[in-house]
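Entry 14. Structure prediction run on the chain below.
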Amino acid sequence: MSIDKELREELRQVADSMHCPPELYGRVKQSYQHYTNEKKGRSPMKKRMLAGIAAVAILIPSAVYASSYLADGIFGSSTTIEQIGGTQEDYQEIEGMLQAAKDKLTEDEFKEYVELTKQLMQLKLKITDKNGVKHEEKLTKEEQQQFEELASKLAPYFEKIKGPAKP
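Output returned:
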């Protein structure tokens, strides 16, 4: 026989000859019952619920942050506004106005409104310097006429946006 087997056999014989006091069985049984009762108190459903709430709390703000801005469709990004002397607050104000327009105009009206606004903003970006000062003399006669036409076409949309919400 190998030494491992001999040692195992010897330990088994000694363990069989040992007798535990009866109070030890009672303490082990009590400890086991305490453990199982404690485990029942912490249900896995609560843990799952907490994990779900934590995931939602993390994902919703990140999804909102990652969602595209309507103003990005017009300017490309907020850095375009900042390059001409605007601020992030100005960009957020424009975004708010576009969100209001989306809520109050029909889908076709909103598409036309955005297209006209894009054209108007391109002209405004052309005449605005890095300090945010407008120099209308930079526009050619055709561009000035186009600027006025765009402003007159956008006027009814501005009235709708400022009016009551659509049903």
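The chain is about 75% helix and 0% strand.
Filed with the rest of this week's runs.
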